[in-house]
Amino acid sequence: MSAPEAAPSDHVHPGDPVTVDRYTAGARINHWITATCLVLLALSGLALFHPSMYFLTGLFGGGQWTRAIHPWIGVVLFFSFCGLFLRFFRLNFWTRSDTVWMKGFREVLADREEEHEELVEIGKYNAGQKVVFWAMSLLIVVLISSGLVIWDQYFAQYSTLEQKQVAILVHSLAAVTIICVWIVHVYAAIWVRGTIRGMTRGSVTGGWAWRHHRKWLRDLVSGKPKDPNASATPAE
Amino acid sequence: MFPPLPNPSVQPVPPKFGEHDLIRRSASNVTAPAQRQTEVAKLIDVSKCIGCKACQSACLEWNDLREEVGVNHGIYDNPLDLTPASLTVMRFTEWVNPETQSLEWLIRKDGCMHCEDPGCLKACPAPGAIVQYSNGIVDFVHENCIGCGYCVKGCPFNIPRISKVDNKAYKCTLCVDRVAVGQGPACQKACPTQAIVFGTKDDMKKWADARIKDLKSRGFANAGLYDPPGVSGTHVMYVLHHADKPEIYAGLPKDPRISPIVQLWKGATKYAGLAAIAVFAGLGFLHHVVKGPNRVSREDERSAKDLTEGKAS
Predict the structure, then answer these.
(1) Which chain A residue's Cα is nearest to B270?
(2) Is the CB of B294 inside 8 Å of chain A's CB atoms?
(3) What is the pLDDT of residues A76-121, one digit of tens each?
(4) Mind listing the domains of chain A with CATH numbers?
């Protein structure tokens, strides 16, 4: 049988419109802590990245404060994201249908999902969301490790100057990349209307689920076993 | 003997250079003054140094700095490395010359080289925290310093140190406050053997030439001036008896230049990074303008309702 496509806390509530629980309160709080950290990190990081952005240090109480607080926000983000990772990684494994979806990515962008959806029905996450998830995961690991190397206040003595130079270059490249990934993430949530309520109220409408994540909805309606960890009986 | 600088007048004198003489200012653009001041330089003649550390003491005293009482590590170097308080240290090397089999005691006064192309200034993200005057002096302006340590990573000589007390970067100022009123740096003033001399860069090169000629006549065939072109020359120069191998002087770099990694970080990455972010944001905006929102239709909701009520495909 195919991999589970829903989390144990996902439930369908019949009605008009149908609503589907997508994110628990815990997941939402976890997400928004991470999101706040990411935005603060981007602002404080950009302030030190390019002189034209230096004025952003004003948001943090000046240059010294920006320099001091940026790494600590990074630590909070790292642990917060670890929580998100543990919550979401099982449903983000790559499957064959993701490859098919990716091949039809142009149709998706062109909003011709109607034709596309017939080709492949999507579980809780589509291939684009999975790419964002894994890109974020990888980049956050790169950012925290390179960040520790250049956190001179506490860790200056553990690396050589050459290592620090490489670390700061890697850190800035990874930061630029994660900001771009973040833009994709936020834009997708804005463009696909009805998405953001999944992360604010925790539920989406049945129509949204039907349109964008039909396999997820079908599995929930049919009561197919969900996450293996939640299922008392083995899937097979 | 190099003619010593005359003692200064006791009358207050206006500074000979200031804000309007900046040729570089970190994280900012400055219009360089039309007239560049005569470049100054400190010349350190390693062959004349006796290792007395008068320069270290004079530096602490003039700059009103106190070094922590340390411990003896069994060698003459004290402190072992530059610190936020010790802006200069003497580095002692016992070197056996393979040609003569004789022990040579190489003593190099380490500190900021005041590069013509300063890596610290290039790396600094804080506007005005590092400045370069048209006479060549590179100085840190502490009120603008944010303590990020980028200058440490940008420096080809590993000179700046970040204070654990106020989280600001410190290095030799070339006694900018003394030079501004016509005096030489404190270390130069204190040096008993004229191993340190100070003047215009041209005069210092001339003086070095005479010293090098003298050293060559004494059998130091590779004696020469250390004024590395990789950083477009420096405003602290060395006369070395073995200028062909500067590394033997406690790791003085042979061909110092701003690391290509730092150049990439502060060059292409800075501009390409912002451009990439702008492109992503712009593409998102354009896509929305052209395609409009992706809305859930009434049929979608009906299909979902049918599905939950067991009526649908």
Answers:
(1) A50
(2) yes
(3) 999 999 999 999 999 999 998 899 888 888 888 877 655 555 567 8
(4) 25-173 (1.20.950.20)
Q: By three-state DSSP, how is residue B196 classified?
A: strand
B residues 88-127 near A, CB within 8 Å? 125-127
State pLDDT tens for residues B164-214: 999 999 999 999 999 999 999 999 999 999 999 999 999 999 999 999 999
- Please tell me the pTM assigned to this model: 0.92
Closest CA relative to residue B57, chosen from B81, B82, B91, B88: B88
- Across chain A, where does the E strand assignment appear? 12-13, 19-21, 203-205
Contact list, B152 vs chain A (CB under 8 Å) = 152, 161, 164
Location of structure tokens 């920006």: A66
User: Check: CATH 3.40.50.300 for B19-258?
Assistant: no
Q: How far is A36 from chain B (nearest CA, A)?
A: 19
Does the interface ipTM go beyond 0.90?
yes
Whole-angstrom Cα distance, residue B123 to residue A235?
A: 57
Longest dimension (CA), chain A: 63
Query: What number of H helices and E strands is found in chain B?
Result: 9, 11
